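Try this one yourself first.
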């Protein structure tokens, strides 16, 4: 009976008081964002949603906005591996949590837009991080909502087992080997959600034979035979529509890519991306040109100096005028 009560108690905590145990990247950022909103209630809140490119490449502290009344409060809500489905889910989660951005910035990542298929397929590895309310949010994008619910429930039968890495990472990270620890997902956050790449620089050997090789394996074939996935396109449309319904101005921004990474786009892929950009439903703030191979760890994750330069450029070239105009 005690074991059953312990499982039930943890399950309730995961859904209510401790979302960070279930989904650390989301839960800890939500906690930070709530505290920022409470500490600076009069400042317009600008939330950027995106992938790990945004996590490591967009630094609000380096944008140069003054720390004073009326000045924009920019928060980085990037999450590793997040594409259109999880970015849309993040917006829905925030709104339901009572955290409504005054402005939304959405990462435009062509390779992520190639993702297609129903929610249960796209989030197969992410199911343990979902809350019960997420099942309703994702139902319109699932081929079989009942199957999604069953798969999710299977992860909640024994939550102490399912979430053991996260729980130990919160309570006793040293009991885990370095490769199993997850605490970097929240201990490396700065006050505005930015997570700097852990190294200031990387060697050419590491970049060429580890970073770029892994990135090409992950994205090379997608960028050669490229098309925008139907589900990704639908999710972008729905995100923009929800922002309009909520009165939230929305804009898109591409993150920088190195010359080597850019060379992987086929001519047809470049044409497809160029044709798709004007249909996004919001302005596109492109401050991504002019970065060298040495600015990246792996061709698409910026090192700290590159992140600072990109962030200031994005603010100076686009955000200041956009926010002032509204």
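Now uncover the answer:
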């Amino acid at each position: 009976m005690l074991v059953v009560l312990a499982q039930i108690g943890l399950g309730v905590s995961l859904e209510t008081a401790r979302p960070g145990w279930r989904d650390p990247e989301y839960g800890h950022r939500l906690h930070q964002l709530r505290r920022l909103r409470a500490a600076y209630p009069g400042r317009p809140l600008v939330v950027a949603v995106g992938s790990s490119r945004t996590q490591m490449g967009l630094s609000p502290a380096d944008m140069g906005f003054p720390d004073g009344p009326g000045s924009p409060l920019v928060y980085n809500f990037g999450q590793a591996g997040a594409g259109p489905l999880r970015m849309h889910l993040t917006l829905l989660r925030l709104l339901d949590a009572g955290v409504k951005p005054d402005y939304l910035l959405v990462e435009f990542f062509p390779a992520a837009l190639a993702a297609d298929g129903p929610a249960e397929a796209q989030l197969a590895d992410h199911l343990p991080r979902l809350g019960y309310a997420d099942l309703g949010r994702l139902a319109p994008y699932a081929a079989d909502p009942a199957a999604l619910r069953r798969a999710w429930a299977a992860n909640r039968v024994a939550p102490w087992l399912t979430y053991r890495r996260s729980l130990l990472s919160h309570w006793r990270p040293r009991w885990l080997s370095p490769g199993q620890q997850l605490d970097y997902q929240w201990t490396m956050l700065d006050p505005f959600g930015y997570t700097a790449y852990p190294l200031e620089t990387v060697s050419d050997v590491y970049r060429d034979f580890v970073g770029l090789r892994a990135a090409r394996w992950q994205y090379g074939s997608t960028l050669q035979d490229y098309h925008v996935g139907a589900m990704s396109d639908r999710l972008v449309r729905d995100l923009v529509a929800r922002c309009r319904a909520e009165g939230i101005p929305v804009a898109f921004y591409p993150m920088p890519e190195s010359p080597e990474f850019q060379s992987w786009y086929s001519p047809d892929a470049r044409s497809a991306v160029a044709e798709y950009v004007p249909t996004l439903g919001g302005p596109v703030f492109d401050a991504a040109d002019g970065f060298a191979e040495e600015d990246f760890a792996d061709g698409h994750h910026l090192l700290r100096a590159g992140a600072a330069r990109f962030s200031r450029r994005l603010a100076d070239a686009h955000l200041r005028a956009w926010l002032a105009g509204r």
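Discussion: Strands lie at 45-50, 73-78, 103-107, 250-253. DSSP finds 17 helices and four strands in the chain.
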